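Progress note, sequence design subtask.
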């Protein structure tokens, strides 16, 4: 093990001990800071009713599972049947987990605390819309106290697969069911490769890469490094960056003959060397192994809702 990797491992162990002491490695099933889990699931049920009742749904789900198992992400989501199958099967449980995760972060909640503020969010690889629904659940809860206030949530979702129909359908339901002023919630979808897309990162208050970073590194490593470096140079001071990936060896990247946790590479690019901490970002909240468990006694949905285990980092731009 190199000295840099050894320092990273020591830092990781120290972080894990702090997390365990604070009991931050298990997210609450529900939170007062976002809409109730049943309300979130009812949105998916209403939006995807015809999908959930389709006799072909299980067939499409099996095709998606097979493609994802082989990490063939483009083939997994190359038509609306597959995309809606994924969104109806897996997005609801992820939306519950993400809503709980966002709710557990004071800096994220603070984005919605100002009744006069417009919060701008970029979701990279968020076409399946779990992030969309989760953040809308926080925003809608915040608007319960200031229903006519001028605050807005403006989301930009970028994905290499064409999730436009899924995003549009869920956004329309959110505007009609969850917020008093439909114009206060806006979600735009860009069917683009984030690695070659020119965006105004300086306007973003929050950037999310949830179960996306590892995929980017595996597909185009050097371009992914350049993308993270663009975030370093262009995001405004005080903006937030949230990265989450599967906990464990699935999120390791092979460089030469060695394997490194993806978070080690990301931390080095964003925060700097472990002994220097001289990067553009600082880690303000993290967990190396965080669980979200669904309380199936309290919710109902037509598909199975899996528990999730993942690591995450919340960074703040210096």
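Output:
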């Amino acid at each position: 093990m190199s000295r840099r990797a050894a320092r990273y491992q020591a830092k990781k162990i120290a972080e894990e001990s702090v997390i365990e002491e604070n009991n931050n490695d298990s997210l609450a099933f529900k939170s007062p800071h976002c809409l109730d889990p049943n309300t979130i699931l009812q949105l998916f049920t209403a939006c995807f009713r015809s999908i959930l009742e389709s006799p072909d749904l299980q067939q499409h789900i099996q095709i998606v599972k097979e493609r994802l198992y082989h990490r063939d992400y483009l083939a997994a989501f190359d038509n609306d049947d597959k995309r809606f199958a994924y969104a109806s099967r897996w997005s609801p449980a992820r939306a519950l987990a993400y809503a709980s995760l966002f709710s557990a972060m004071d800096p994220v909640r603070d984005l919605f605390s100002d009744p006069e503020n417009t919060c701008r969010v970029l979701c990279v690889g968020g076409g399946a819309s779990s992030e969309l629904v989760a953040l809308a659940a926080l925003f809608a809860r915040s608007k319960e106290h200031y229903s006519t206030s001028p605050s807005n949530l403006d989301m930009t979702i970028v994905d290499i697969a064409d999730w436009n129909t899924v995003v549009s359908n869920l956004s329309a339901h959110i505007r009609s069911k969850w917020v008093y002023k439909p114009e206060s919630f806006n979600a735009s979808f860009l069917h683009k490769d984030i690695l070659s897309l020119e965006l105004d990162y300086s306007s973003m208050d929050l950037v999310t890469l949830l179960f996306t970073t590892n995929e980017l590194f595996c597909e185009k490593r050097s371009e992914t490094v350049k993308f993270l470096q663009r975030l370093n140079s262009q995001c405004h001071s005080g903006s937030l960056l949230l990265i989450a990936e599967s906990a464990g060896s699935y999120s390791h990247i092979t460089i030469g003959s060695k394997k490194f946790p993806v978070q080690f590479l990301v931390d080095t690019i964003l925060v700097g060397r472990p002994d220097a901490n001289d990067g553009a970002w600082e880690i303000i909240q993290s967990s190396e192994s965080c669980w979200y468990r669904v309380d199936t006694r309290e919710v109902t949905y037509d598909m199975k809702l899996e528990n999730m285990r993942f690591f995450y980092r919340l960074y703040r731009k210096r």
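The radius of gyration is 19 Å. Work on this subtask will continue into the next period as scheduled.
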